[in-house]
Design goal:
Layout (H helix, E strand, L loop, with lengths): L1 H17 L30 E6 L10 E6 L3 E6 L3 E5 L5 E6 L9 E7 L9 H8 L4 E13 L2 E12 L2 E12 L2 E10 L3 H14 L1 E2 L2
Antiparallel strand pairs: 1-2, 2-3, 3-11, 4-5, 5-6, 6-10, 7-8, 8-9, 9-10
Protein name: PsbP protein
Keywords: Signal
Organism: Lacrimispora xylanisolvens
Length: 210
């Protein structure tokens, strides 16, 4: 039973590190997602609220026309021309966001799960070992400590390849109470500069409300 529990924990951790971007790698991976991590087709009633507004705040300067996403535990701003999709799950719930460049693959997503999914003591070598189980040619370019809404957080940036195309993923993760929150942005590396200011504005707008 201990072996099965540890295997389950490791699988969940890998998913938390790479949730939505696994869609980008479907052509080059043979691993099947466990049933307990598969997304449900609909979101809980009245859980979230999305409003459109025009912002003039310094935080959202790169998002002149924004939507506001919120649920019982968090709220943040994102570009008004993005669309969102709720994906509640047993162990990890996440929300995908899409833009015109990302097509059917999410350009940004946030997930929440149990607090142990985030480990502030992981080293660059630890992350590379975990990520290399799901991604090809992993190169970590940034691993730093930061804060999100006053909470200690980790910023991780790494490169990987899928179908001979290089992608950049930027991930922020933090713990609030018993919950781990992760925020991820994935794009082709030649577009990473275009998304950097947008991601910074999203992260700066986050408020934990639960």
């Amino acid at each position: 039973m201990n072996i099965l529990k540890e295997k389950h924990k490791k699988t969940s951790c890998l998913f938390a590190l790479a949730a939505g971007a696994m869609l980008l790698l479907s052509a080059c991976q043979t691993r099947t997602q466990p049933d307990y991590l598969k997304a449900e087709s609909s979101s809980p009633a009245n859980e979230t609220s999305i409003q459109t507004e025009t912002s003039s705040s310094a935080i959202a300067q790169s998002l002149p026309q924004i939507n506001s996403y919120s649920n019982k535990v968090i709220k943040f701003n994102y570009p008004a021309d993005w669309t969102s999709e709720e994906n509640p799950g047993e162990d990890i719930s996440y929300v995908n966001f899409f833009d015109s460049k990302s097509g059917s693959d999410p350009v940004f997503w946030y997930s929440r799960g149990e607090a142990w999914l985030t480990d502030f003591n992981r080293t660059e070598e630890d992350y590379k070992a975990l990520l290399s189980e799901s991604y090809l040619d992993v190169v970590i370019t940034d691993l730093t400590k930061t804060t999100i809404d006053g909470n200690e957080a980790i910023k991780l940036v790494f490169l990987y390849k899928a179908n001979d195309v290089e992608y950049t993923m930027t991930q922020y993760e933090t713990i609030v109470g018993p919950v781990s929150f992760q925020f991820n942005c994935t794009c082709k590396s030649d577009l990473s500069n275009d998304y950097e200011s947008i991601l910074n504005s999203i992260i700066s707008s986050i408020e934990f409300t639960g």
